[in-house]
Write a structure and sequence with these properties.
globular, 15 helices, porphyrin biosynthesis, alpha/beta, TIM Barrel, Uroporphyrinogen decarboxylase, 11% strand, Uroporphyrinogen_deCOase, 7-stranded parallel beta sheet, lyase, UROD/MetE-like_sf
Length: 355
């Protein structure tokens, strides 16, 4: 494989010395870029874009042509695994993802098998291989998956939800059925992420988008223990270097110590927690990723810069262990110029913290 020219992101996650704070953005390949909209129109629909190796590669690379980002993230969707399990994923305009055949009972769970990463999910691995080739060592490639709990919410609710009543009903009335599903999903995520690593992903991330809707006890039982199982099952070294793993639970700030104790390398923070507080709580156990409010990119450039300075100052002069990011995905109506200014400001303003 081609030698990596910029490994700042990987070194920061492994808490090794870096010259500046690396930065990338969740959903950096997406609807805020006019070139993305053109490519998506060419593909026809979202999943066709994900399944087209050439176009998935193109949209992954697009933000790197515009901005001096320190990592690329695979263009895909968190629901690829449930889709490959035969639940019939489709997208309703303006309503997000839906499943034709949601999970309703134990028999449904028993029926589903683990998808083959080089079979039903080969299109994802083909995209990883193609993107790595196209990147040509410029920056590392991040692979990812949804967490078992988050995947299960979509599979049981049949799509997005506000109250999560169906999955919580199963959680409290038939916990053994839900544990059976979560265990299958954890095994599937391990195979899926290890296949991404074998195909060329140099770091992986688990998105636990809906872990924050759980009580502390239920979070540990139904979300965190399955992410810990994934961390234990992952390939942690490939191509002669370590493969860092980051866990991100949205609204999970109260559980930072428990997340850090899983053995992951990095913990993602949303914007609802102060980074100084987070850093004090986890010490030098893990790197932190985050955590500017994505809506800050609507602000004037001076205000964006002030916020970048505040977050850098909050993390302090540890010299490493911080990957700057938004606290969640970039909004589709953000001005790309503001995103560019944000990235430049992180690089410029972080250098004094790394002397």
């Amino acid at each position: 494989m081609t030698e990596l020219k910029n490994d700042t992101y990987l070194r920061a996650l492994l808490r090794q010395p870096v010259d500046y704070t690396p930065v990338w953005m969740m959903r950096q390949a997406g609807r805020y870029l006019p070139e993305y909209k053109e490519t998506r129109a060419q593909a026809g629909d979202f999943m066709s874009l994900c399944r087209n190796t050439e176009l998935a590669t193109e949209v992954t690379i697009q933000p790197l042509r515009r901005f001096d980002l320190d990592a690329a993230i695979l263009f895909s969707d968190i629901l690829t695994i449930p889709d490959a399990m035969g639940l019939g994923l489709y997208f309703e305009t303006g309503e997000g993802p839906k499943f034709e055949r949601p999970i309703t009972c134990k028999a449904d769970v028993e029926k589903i098998g683990l998808p083959d990463p080089e079979g039903e999910l080969k299109y994802v691995m083909d995209a990883v291989r193609s993107i790595r080739k196209e990147l040509n060592g410029k920056v590392p490639l991040i692979g990812f998956s949804g967490s078992p709990w988050t995947l299960a919410t979509y599979m049981i609710e049949g799509g997005s939800s506000k109250a999560f009543t169906k999955i919580k009903k199963m959680m409290f009335a038939e916990p053994q059925t839900l544990h059976l599903l979560l265990d299958k999903l954890a095994d599937s995520v391990i195979e899926y992420l290890n296949a991404q690593i074998a195909a060329g992903a140099q770091s992986v991330m688990v998105f636990d988008t809906w872990g924050g809707v759980l009580s502390p006890r239920d979070y540990k039982d139904f979300s965190l223990q399955y992410m810990a199982k994934i961390v234990d099952g992952l390939t942690r070294e490939n191509e002669g270097r370590k493969v860092p793993v980051t866990l991100f639970t949205k609204n999970g700030g109260m559980w930072l110590e428990s997340i850090a104790a899983t053995g992951c390398d990095g913990v993602g923070l949303d914007w609802t927690i102060d980074i100084e507080n987070a850093a004090a709580r986890v010490g030098d156990k893990v790197a932190l990723q985050g955590n500017m409010d994505p809506s800050m990119l609507y602000a004037p450039k001076e205000r964006i810069e002030q916020e970048v300075a505040k977050i850098l100052s909050g993390y302090g002069d540890k010299g490493t262990g911080h990957v700057f990011n938004l606290g969640h995905g970039i909004h589709p109506d953000v001005n790309p110029e503001h995103a560019g200014h944000f990235i430049e400001a992180v690089h410029r303003l972080s250098k004094p913290y790394h002397k």
